[in-house]
Amino acid sequence: MVIRQRAIQAEDKHERHHAILDAAERLLLRSPERIANVAEVADEAGLAKGTVYLYFPSKEVLLLAVHERAIDGFFRAVIAMVEQRAPIAIEDMQALTRVHIVEAPLLLRLAAHCLGRMANGKPAERAVAFKRRMAQRVTRAGGGLER
User: Fold this and answer.
1) Is the model more confident about 114 or about 38?
2) Residue 103: DSSP 8-state
3) Alpha-carbon Rg of the chain, whole angstroms?
């Protein structure tokens, strides 16, 4: 484990945030049968456990962030496709969905886990913020698909 100095600059904080997400994702891919705890994520990222908690107040919030990053890739691809203003074949949309959702090793598993937690109201404020961001993505992508 390599303990790095505290991130002070916004760019460093952004990098640290993604390093934590990357570490959590690696652990989830390495052991798909279990969800790693925060201490394991910290160790994988080469950080102290307290540092992870500075960025993510709970394991659930961390998992939701990993899930959101994955689903954001799908929506970015859909939005890029619809903003080209060219007709979209259903086969193109099916291929994009297959690559980003069906074949993505973590996406559906994390979706089930995160949505189950949100249904139980944990963590409520983060779940509401996530749902708002998802609504924005769906609205933007849906508007393009409608055109």
Assistant:
1) 38
2) S
3) 17
